[in-house]
Amino acid sequence: MKELKENKGIIIVRADKGNATVIMDRVSYHGKITDMLQDAETYTQLRTNPSAKTQKTVNAFISNLQKENKVTTGDASKLKSSDAIIPRLYGLPKVHKDAIPLRPIVSFIGSATYNLCREIARIIKHLVGKSVHHVRNAEDFVNEIRNLSINQDEIMASFDVVSLFTKIPVELALDVVLHRLELWADISSHTKWSIKDICQGLKICLNATHLHFRGN
């Protein structure tokens, strides 16, 4: 999902939820994102563009997999990066909330890690749904709690995590994935990559979090 149009003082963008199009004042839109980027615990302004370094790391990683015959020459060519662009930040307005905050979205299309991320996602998607805590959708959740009994001294609570991605420690995420991979009995039927390869590639992707907004 991308911004639709920016012209003559307005931003035309898709809403965060629902099939709606939102027209926003461009100054207000830019101000909301700029304010969000002032959060020093989450964002810091870089002096140099790390895309070339990330691209070199990705290509070296893929070259090693190719030498070990874990990817074909053709697949290696698709997974490697050249002339990588910086991931772009934009925001989707949450029209269902007061003051219409923006949900930050980073488009990695064309970035150094884009194709590597897609390949790793293809591999580890088979791990989804194997946890007893997994809920497929709202209907599945309703069915899960339909016959649930709550005692008088208990309450049901819902928690909303703000900016989920930036709140998850990378090392913790890697540990969880590693644990799930080690329990995956038929991993070899889905990829030639070793568990170490998958985790190494995932670490490259999760640490390549640089982005740009309006040239910064």
Task: Please describe what this structure looks like.
With 216 residues, the protein is of the alpha+beta class. The protein has one domain. The protein contains 8 helices and 5 strands. It has a 3-stranded antiparallel sheet. A two-stranded antiparallel sheet has the order 4-5. α4 packs across α8. It is flat, with a radius of gyration of 21 Å. The model has no long low-confidence stretch (mean pLDDT 92).
CA-based shape:
flat
Binned strand content: 5-15%
- The strands making up the biggest β-sheet line up spatially as 1-2-3
The averaged pLDDT comes out at 92
Low-confidence stretches: none
Q: Helix and strand succession? A: EEEHHHEEHHHHH
Number of domains: 1
Structural class: alpha+beta
Distance between the termini: 22 Å
Helicity, as a percent range:
25-40%
Using only C-alpha atoms, the radius of gyration works out to 21 Å
Number of strands: 5
**Quick one: biggest sheet?**
3 strands, antiparallel
Discrete helix count: 8
Topology:
Blueprint: E1 5-7, E2 10-14, E3 21-25, H1 26-36, H2 51-67, H3 73-79, E4 88-93, E5 102-107, H4 114-124, H5 138-145, H6 164-167, H7 170-182, H8 195-207
Antiparallel strand pairs: 1-2, 2-3, 4-5
